[in-house]
Write a structure and sequence with these properties.
- Helix content is 29%, strand content 41%.
- The chain has one domain: YjbQ-like (Jelly Rolls).
- The chain has 143 residues and is an alpha+beta fold.
- The protein has 4 helices and 8 strands.
Amino acid sequence: MEIITHQFEVSTKGFNDIINITPQIEQFVNDKYLLEGQLLVFINGATASISCVEYEPGLLHDIPEMLERIAPMNARYRHNDTWHDGNGYAHARSTLMGPMTVFPIYNNQLIRGTWQQIILLDFDNRPRTRKITLQFSGNIDKL
């Protein structure tokens, strides 16, 4: 069994920016000839998340609206009392959505449904450069 780690960066606008990162992940899978195993997709930021969704215009509006109902931007967050950075809501949203997801790899393909895309959600209150870590555990084709 092999372990392969790869990182890439994505620039975001913040404020619920939702970016489809599926192409970068599929490129990694294809370039490394991953035969069978598990691929972890992780974001190392406390105000961002990784998820899987149908990446379409309706949901790009629905997800931020849902999160606004659950963790409104203008609510009182004690995090803001401590740090005075105004992004307590972003930390709450990130906690709800989670920093990672895992996908199976089989026959050098990322296994996902036709309408499932892997997304980066950036909740922070400013643009950011986000680092995504991919970590594959499994078998690779040695060619």
